[in-house]
Amino acid sequence: MDGRFQNLLELLRGNLAAAEVVWIFADASHLWDDVVDGDPIRVEWADKVFLSLMLDLPRNPFYQQHVGRLLPAFECAVHSWFASRQLENSADPEDQVTAHVTRFNFADFVATVTELACGRQYALENAARIRRMTHQDSLEEFRAELAERAAR
User: What is the pLDDT of residues 72-109, one digit of tens each?
Assistant: First the structure.
């Protein structure tokens, strides 16, 4: 089992269905970002992501029970990702900082799943942990990625 998935499962107190929902949305987000960035994509991974979205997610009992809260939370993460994409190529260094932080607002989706699975108080007590789990690169790494993309 992937170490990041194990950490997520521990955060969600062993709720496998909730962890799978997060993982499916995370994979889909990552694939979408790779497509937009023009990064190489393995066909096997794309197949896995789309099969999970189309077949596994609708059958997931946690998703079925909480879809009314999950979709708006994920929609907010999508809005943040679009804002990040719009800000990332700005000449203003502050816009790049905002873009870097905003691109990881998937953490809010994870916080919503955590609240639904484990309760509001637990989610609030673990807010920093959730942010650390979802924030995957430094500002310097982000800026290096932007420079690499600009050079293509």
Answer: 999 999 999 999 999 988 889 899 999 999 989 999 99
Cβ contact 1:16 at 8 Å: no
Task: From residue 33, give the alpha-carbon distance in Å to each of 14, 26, 29, 85, 145.
Answer: 28, 11, 6, 10, 13
Residue 97 carries which side chain, given as an amino acid letter?
V
Rounded to two decimals, what is the model's pTM? 0.91
CA-based torsion, 106, 8, 18, 114: positive or negative:
negative
Q: How far apart (Å, rounded) are the C-alpha atoms in residues 150 and 75?
A: 28
Which single residue is written with the structure tokens 């673990």? 126
Question: Which residues, 6+ apart, have CB-to-CB distance to 53 below 8 Å?
Answer: 24, 28
Q: Please report, for the chain, the start and end positions of each structural domain, with discontinuous segments joined by +.
A: 3-151
Tell me how far apart the alpha carbons of residues 60 and 39 are, in angstroms, rounded to a whole number.
30
Whether 31 and 45 have beta carbons less than 8 Å apart is answered as yes
Whole-number Cα distances in Å, 114 to 29, 71, 95, 107, 120: 18, 14, 30, 10, 8
